[in-house]
Amino acid sequence: MRGAPLDGTERRILVVGSGGAGKSWLATRLAAITGLPLVHLDVHFWRPGWSAMPDDEWAATVARLATAERWVMDGNFSATLRGRLRAADAVVFVDMPRWRCVLRVFTRMIRWYGRSRPDLAPGCPEGFDLAFLQWVWNFPRRSRPEVIEAMRAAPPGVKRIVLRSTRDVRAFLEETAAARDPGAR
Question: Does pTM surpass 0.85?
């Protein structure tokens, strides 16, 4: 793990990473620990039948969501990443190995097949999506460098955290919970 745990001063926490990295899972737990409202960007982007929101409408929606006073927000959407980073107090990059992300996506497809997951918009049932699997497979080469560059370009006050393993994620959550409640140690 790189970066300090969240200490309670953060009001806007952005969680990014490949599909299958565990962004939504981590964001849900961070929201529970911090008491911050949870924003799954996929819930806002997708319309029933996996219909994507038009680009201009999406940019306005993300801008509106990012200006909220408090949030834990998960999702990639590279076109809006830099704006969300400018609004964030902290960014957590869940940088898992490719094999783990692909395995988790397959597991998720099987577990939720034909049903909508809680971190997605209603009317978007899970199914086998070869294009999404290809995106996950290619994330380390195509998207990861963009995320790293965007994090480097974020304003100086943005706390940057990179989690590269399940152990890192567990330790980060434990340390963040303890930092917020020192008596819990």
Answer: yes
Query: What is d(CA 96, CA 120) in angstroms, rounded to the nearest whole number?
Result: 21
CATH topology of domain 12-177: Rossmann fold (3.40.50)
**Under 8 Å between Cβ of 136 and 149:** no
Per residue in 28-77, pLDDT tens?
Answer: 999 999 999 999 999 999 999 999 999 999 999 999 999 999 999 999 89
